[in-house]
Amino acid sequence: MTEKGVVTGRVIDAISREDYYQLHQKNATGAYVNTVRAAYEELLEAVAAACCQDVLFASDQANRLTQSILERFQVAPDFPWEKETRYQSYGTFRHASNRKWFALIMHVKRAVLDKNDNPALVDIINLKIQPEQGEALRQLPSVYPAYHMNHKTWISVVLDDTHPDAAIMKWIDESYWLTQ
Questions:
Q1: Phi and psi of 145, rounded to 5°?
Q2: Which of 48, 61, 86, 115 could form a disulfide with 7 if both were Cys (CB 3.0 to 4.6 A apart)?
C-alpha cells in the first residue's frame, strides 16, 4: 500500500519471471493485456475492500469523532490544504448552508500548545465556544487557547482520550450551533 492509501501490487510473467510491464502501459492494448489488467484491478479492489478502511486522522479519537459528526450532522471533513504537504491532514467540518467551519482537526507538534520544544505529534480539534466559557474550559487538562484561531472564542482540545468522546461531542454540538 502506498502512503496515499492506494493498494498496489505486481504481476509477474510466468515465462520470463519478470514484471509484466504491459500492465501499466496505457498504450498497451489487446485482448490478453486487457484481461490481465481487469483481473489485476478486480483483485486489488477485493483486497482493499477486505483489508482496508479509510483512516482520515492519526488518532483513534479523531476518527471516532469524525464518524460521530458525520452521523449527527451529515458532515464529512474536507481537506482544503491537501496539496500542501505540511497541512494536508488538516480537516475542516463546515455547515452545508454557509460553509462556515464549526470544527477543525489538525495534526500538530505538541510544542505549539505547550509553548516548549516537545516534538511529539498530536491530533487536536478547534471548536468555537462562548467567550464566558473560555477561562473555565482552558483550566481543563488537554484544553488550550485555540491554535491559529481567536483565543477568546475558540479552544483546541487534544484528542488523546483525556476527555471522553461524549464530552467532546457536547463541545462540538455547541460549536455547531454557535457558527450557524
A1: -60, 145
A2: 48
120 close to 136: Cβ distance less than 8 angstroms: no
Contacts of 61 (CB under 8 A, 6+ apart): 123, 159, 160, 161, 165, 168
pLDDT tens digits along 52-98: 766 789 999 999 999 999 999 999 999 998 777 777 889 999 999 99
Report the largest interatomic distance among the alpha carbons of the chain, rounded to a whole angstrom.
74
Beta-bridged to residue 123, according to DSSP, are 107
3-state helix, strand, coil in the chain (%, to 5): 40, 20, 45
Question: Please, what's the b/e burial string for 41-75 (b: 16 or more CB within 10 A of its CB; e: otherwise)?
Answer: eeeeeeeeeeeeeeeebebebbbbbbeebeeebeb
User: Each residue of 86-100: pLDDT tens digit?
Assistant: 778 899 999 999 999
Task: Note the pTM of the prediction, 2 decimals.
Answer: 0.73
Report the DSSP beta bridge partners of residue 126: 104, 156
Q: What cell does 102 get?
A: 464549526
> Are the beta carbons of 57 and 105 closer than 8 angstroms?
yes
Distance CA 35, CA 55 (A): 32
C-alpha torsion angle, residues 93, 76, 68, 66 (rounded to 10): -70
